[in-house]
């Protein structure tokens, strides 16, 4: 008798001794631990590359660092071409270009099943991109690696789709918690991005994963933090109007950020060759770095310097050094950094780099907040505001506007500053920024492409249920097709007598749909034998109330067509030919089943 594999025995023991609820708690702990290790590994590899390059005589002393991103992108290009030639997720459509949209699409259309290569792909590519100066972040790659770990773990242990979705959300929370040591913001981000219901069933696994990841980060890195700010100046109510102004500024900057993101991608999409994209992007990044050195890498040290008031060190050595004593030159340089950070980040992505969006967004927001504070303090109003506080709150305002995650923005800044001293100004700025961008742009850089194609889950359960449903799952094909030239007698012998349906599609010799016949249409004459040979199907058929186009209509459209036509059955047309019917009863049954899955 063959011996059961260890995995098989583990699964059997799990079903025998461990309840589903406790099993999810165990898995969320494991996901937090594994994602924490992945995040720590990612940071250590990246910082090792950066440290090695900073100590290099050629690049540090001769100020040739601006050519490093080209080298990094070229290494990514070579690895992509030869090591990861077949790609990570072949079924992900090419219009999806970032990590989180890929996860959202996978959860919707692929049951959350991710390639095992995505576990180590970001751990190689992101450090090469960021370590060599690419103007992107590490959080996105950490989320991708952790999500791939949780997806493949759930596949090995035969976890269902719903639990797999929760575990991928746990991986997202764990990555954020490990990077920022902010478990509350991590949970909120997972809820806002993945549109989870904040119930005890989802909250506790997210909390366990976050705690496990934070402890892992403390174990390997100690008290080291990405951001370590101690707020010394409390909120002054007299500054309320200026925080509102900052909210307006971050809202406008968020719109600029998003539009620039899609515009640059559209520009690079015109180049068919990946090497051409690398060359154009690398040269563009090098030029930007020469004039604005702080664009190099993630930009975390830049934000720390601004918070500490050391803006000269933040700006670094640049062609405008002899004018740096003028505060308005400093302000202009910071505005330039704010404008070009979005350009440098997206160019890095479009040129083939691997990284994340959230940290560059925070860095850009810190520069904008600092600019607003400096303008207020030097414009001659006779009123001074805290530049460090505005630097922090600018970060929150841009996060809220760019990724439409206002609660994440508030709790993240509150946690990394070690308290809630700035909670009120955070709420003011974030609320205004989010309101402006949400009214102007319904979707973010994460969700726009998915929404345009009907592949986006939201907190609207009706909307999400219809998005998850597929047309193929409700099409019925057990209908007997009739032809217009058939006689009434043939119709009764070949159709009515052999069918359990009271509806018959009528097609021509090429299977083109030409009409329908209901049993009610012939009920009054079906026993009149004098008409069996003298009348044909064409006499009784009529047009359907509406048609469902297989290649075009999504489930939202299908539901609306049923609502408008008042029909109980609608024909499906595929490749201009009859394909089947969708019945209202089956559609509503499928809808109720999916709704139960969402709410249970």
Automatic annotation (TrEMBL):
Keyword field contains Transmembrane helix: yes
Domain CBS intervals: 475-534, 541-600
Primary localisation category: membrane
Ligase found in the keyword field: no
Gene Ontology CC: one annotated term: chloride channel complex
Location relative to the cell: Membrane
Transmembrane residue ranges: 23-42, 62-80, 118-144, 164-191, 198-221, 241-268, 275-296, 327-344, 351-372, 392-413, 420-437
GO molecular function, one term: chloride channel activity
Keyword tags: CBS domain, Chloride, Chloride channel, Ion channel, Ion transport, Membrane, Transmembrane, Transmembrane helix, Transport
Membrane topology: Multi-pass membrane protein
Pfam families per record: CBS, Voltage_CLC
Protein name: Chloride channel protein, CIC family
Highest classification ranks of the organism: Bacteria, Pseudomonadati, Bacteroidota, Flavobacteriia, Flavobacteriales
């Amino acid at each position: 008798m063959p011996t059961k594999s260890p995995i098989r025995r583990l699964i059997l023991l799990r079903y025998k001794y461990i309840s589903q609820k406790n099993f999810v708690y165990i898995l969320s702990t494991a996901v937090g631990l594994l994602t924490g290790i992945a995040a720590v590994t990612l940071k250590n590899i990246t910082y090792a590359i950066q440290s090695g390059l900073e100590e290099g005589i050629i690049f540090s002393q001769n100020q040739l660092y601006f050519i490093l991103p080209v080298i990094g992108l070229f290494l990514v290009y070579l690895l992509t071409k030869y090591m990861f030639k077949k790609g990570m997720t072949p079924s992900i459509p090419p219009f999806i270009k970032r990590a989180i949209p890929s996860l959202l699409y996978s959860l919707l259309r692929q049951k959350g099943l991710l390639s095992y290569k995505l576990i180590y792909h970001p751990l190689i590519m992101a450090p090469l991109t960021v370590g060599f100066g690419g103007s992107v972040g590490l959080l996105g790659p950490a989320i991708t690696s952790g999500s791939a770990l949780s997806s493949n773990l759930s596949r090995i242990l035969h976890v269902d789709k719903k639990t797999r979705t929760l575990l991928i959300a746990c991986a997202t929370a764990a990555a954020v918690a490990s990077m920022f040591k902010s478990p509350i913001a991590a949970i909120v981000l997972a809820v806002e991005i993945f549109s989870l219901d904040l119930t005890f069933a989802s909250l506790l696994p997210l909390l366990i994963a976050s705690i496990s990841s934070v402890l892992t980060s403390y174990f390997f890195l100690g008290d080291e933090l990405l951001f370590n700010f101690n707020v010394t100046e409390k909120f002054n109510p007299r500054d309320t109007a200026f925080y509102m102004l900052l909210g307006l500024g971050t809202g406008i900057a968020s719109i600029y950020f998003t539009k620039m993101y899609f515009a640059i991608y559209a520009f690079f999409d015109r180049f068919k060759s990946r090497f051409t994209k690398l060359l154009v992007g690398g040269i563009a990044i090098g030029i930007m770095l020469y004039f604005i050195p702080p664009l190099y890498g993630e930009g975390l040290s830049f934000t720390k310097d601004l918070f500490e008031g050391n803006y000269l060190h933040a700006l670094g050595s640049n062609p405008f050094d002899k004018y740096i004593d003028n505060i308005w030159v400093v302000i202009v340089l910071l505005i330039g950094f704010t404008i070009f950070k979005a350009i440098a980040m997206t160019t890095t992505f479009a040129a083939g780099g691997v990284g994340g969006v959230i940290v560059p967004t925070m860095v850009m927001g810190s520069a904008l907040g600092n600019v607003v504070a400096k303008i207020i303090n030097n414009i001659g109003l006779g009123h001074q505001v805290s530049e460090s506080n505005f630097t922090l709150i600018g970060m929150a305002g841009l996060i809220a506007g760019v990724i439409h995650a206002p609660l994440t923005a508030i709790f993240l800044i509150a946690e990394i500053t070690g308290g809630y001293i700035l909670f009120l100004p955070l709420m003011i700025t974030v609320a205004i920024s989010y309101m402006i961008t949400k009214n102007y742009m319904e979707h973010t850089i994460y969700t726009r492409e998915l929404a345009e194609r009907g592949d986006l889950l939201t907190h609207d359960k009706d909307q999400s249920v219809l998005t998850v449903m597929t047309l193929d799952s409700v099409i019925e094909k057990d209908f007997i097709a009739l032809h217009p030239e058939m006689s009434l007698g043939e119709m009764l012998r070949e159709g009515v007598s052999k069918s359990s349906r009271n509806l018959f599609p009528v097609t021509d010799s090429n299977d083109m749909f030409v009409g329908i016949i209901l049993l009610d249409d012939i009920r009054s004459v079906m026993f009149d034998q004098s008409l069996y040979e003298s009348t044909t199907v064409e006499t009784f058929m009529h047009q359907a109330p509406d048609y469902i186009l297989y290649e075009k209509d999504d489930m939202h459209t299908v539901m609306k067509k049923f609502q408008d036509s008042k029909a109980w059955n609608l024909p499906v047309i595929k490749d201009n030919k009859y394909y089947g019917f969708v019945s209202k009863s089956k559609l509503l049954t499928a809808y109720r089943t999916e709704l139960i899955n969402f709410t249970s």
